[in-house]
């Protein structure tokens, strides 16, 4: 191998890997003009890199400052909202307490008037007692004795002078309901922060399911429509899917079912069977769909063709079902959206040990809806609607 001339013209031409660490070290070790040029270029690169790093650090510091400023602004706005609620609560509390005090004062005034009348009567009786005793001592009738033993006339019945207990028992009941609703609303707000705007996918709807113009209402028709068969359409089972799917993070939506006598609401993988009426096409009767359903007044949860009775067996069925998907944590929960009462939860943490080797969800989850054949003896509306939050 020929020796390389480091200082000659050929060396300046032959540099196949100018940034090669080994070659750079050889050039620097040899010294000379080329080494100085290499070191100069290296110094320039390092200086530029230093400027970039300093600029990036400055940018990160600014972002951190902006982050702190945004967080403080958010805290201030949240605090203002809660301060407004506290002010409203305090004002309403003062009004309620003032109403109780006014009631007490009115009843107290009437009692005071009655007490004064009885005191006057007592004074007269005591005076007559004194006159009677004097008459007995003198064995003569007392000339100034009134002998008036009549009681004070009652303007109202004494038992009517009291606090209006029925009125304030109603107040306590109303306040209790407001408290329950407030707790539910405060809990529900954490779900609404992750609300998902769901639209019904018309291409998946069974031919007896009609979709409203806004894409949120599903109506069950007793007669099949003469529509074109679609490849993604449910053929036999009265089902429909919604979009978009949830592939990561935490999302929430609600379905109004108050005008549907029998229903199923849930979530499924997109590859659920659409043809036929075997279990593979029915929500909850297979391993890739989950749901809660109401049939014959009984509320139950289904997955993998296993049925579990939902919590609160004797409680009225929900009028609005909340669906919370935490795809990352493998959790799917159903709630009574009005009271935020948990109906049922599917979770990887609650699954048998043998089922925990893989995450709960391996694919995106899509909202799913199912009708059951209407009972001809119970005519009436039969529809469900995905709720719009207007946030």
How would you explain this protein's 3D organization?
Helix content is 38%, strand content 19%. It has four helices and 14 strands. The strands form two sheets. It has a seven-stranded antiparallel sheet, with no helix packed on it. The protein is flat, with a radius of gyration of 41 Å. The two termini are 77 Å apart.
At a glance:
The chain is α+β, with helices and mostly antiparallel strands.
Mean pLDDT: 82
Span of the ends, CA to CA: 77 Å
The biggest sheet amounts to: 7 strands, antiparallel
What's the shape? flat
| Secondary structure: number of strands | 14
Order of helices and strands: HHHHEEEEEEEEEEEEEE
Whole-angstrom Rg: 41 Å
Beta strand % = 15-25%
Class by helix and strand content? alpha+beta
Which residue ranges are poorly predicted, with pLDDT under 50 across at least 5 consecutive positions?
1-18, 353-358
Helix content estimate: 25-40%
* Strand arrangement in the largest pleated sheet: 1-4-13-6-7-8-9
How many helices? The count is: 4
What are the defining features of this structure?
391 residues; alpha+beta; seven-stranded antiparallel beta sheet; 38% helix; 19% strand; flat; disordered N terminus
């Amino acid at each position: 191998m020929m020796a390389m001339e480091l200082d000659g013209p050929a060396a300046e031409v032959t540099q196949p890997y100018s940034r090669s660490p080994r070659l750079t070290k050889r050039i620097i070790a040899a010294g000379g003009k080329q080494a100085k040029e290499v070191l100069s270029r290296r110094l320039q690169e390092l200086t530029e890199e230093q400027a970039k790093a300093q600029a990036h650090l400055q940018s990160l510091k600014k972002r951190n400052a902006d982050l702190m400023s945004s967080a403080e602004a958010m805290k201030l706005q949240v605090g203002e909202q809660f301060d407004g609620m506290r002010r409203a609560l305090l004002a309403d509390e003062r009004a309620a307490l003032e109403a109780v005090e006014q009631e007490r004062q009115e009843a107290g005034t009437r009692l005071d008037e009655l007490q004064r009348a009885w005191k006057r009567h007592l004074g007269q009786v005591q005076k007559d007692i004194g006159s009677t005793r004097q008459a007995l001592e003198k064995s003569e009738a007392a000339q100034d004795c009134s002998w008036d033993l009549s009681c004070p006339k009652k303007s109202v019945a004494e038992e009517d002078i009291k606090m209006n207990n029925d009125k304030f028992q109603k107040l306590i009941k109303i306040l209790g309901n407001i408290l329950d609703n407030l707790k539910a609303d405060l809990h529900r707000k954490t779900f609404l922060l992750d609300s998902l705007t769901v639209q019904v996918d018309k291409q998946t709807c069974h031919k007896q399911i009609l979709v409203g113009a806004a894409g949120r209402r599903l109506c069950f028709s007793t007669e099949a429509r003469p529509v074109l068969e679609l490849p993604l359409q449910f053929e036999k089972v009265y089902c429909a899917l919604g979009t978009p799917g949830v592939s990561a993070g935490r999302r929430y939506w609600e379905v109004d079912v108050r005008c549907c006598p029998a229903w199923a609401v849930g979530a499924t993988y997109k590859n659920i069977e659409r043809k036929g009426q075997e279990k593979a096409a029915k929500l909850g009767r297979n391993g890739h769909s989950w749901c809660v359903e109401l049939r014959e007044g009984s509320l139950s949860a289904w997955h993998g063709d296993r049925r579990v009775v939902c919590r609160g067996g004797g409680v009225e069925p929900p009028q609005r079902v909340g669906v919370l998907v935490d795809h990352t944590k493998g959790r799917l929960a159903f709630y009574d959206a009005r009271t935020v009462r948990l109906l049922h939860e599917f979770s990887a943490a609650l699954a048998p040990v043998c089922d925990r080797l893989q995450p709960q969800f391996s694919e995106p989850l899509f909202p799913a809806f199912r009708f059951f054949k209407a009972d001809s003896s119970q005519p009436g509306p039969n529809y469900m609607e995905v709720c719009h939050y207007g946030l």
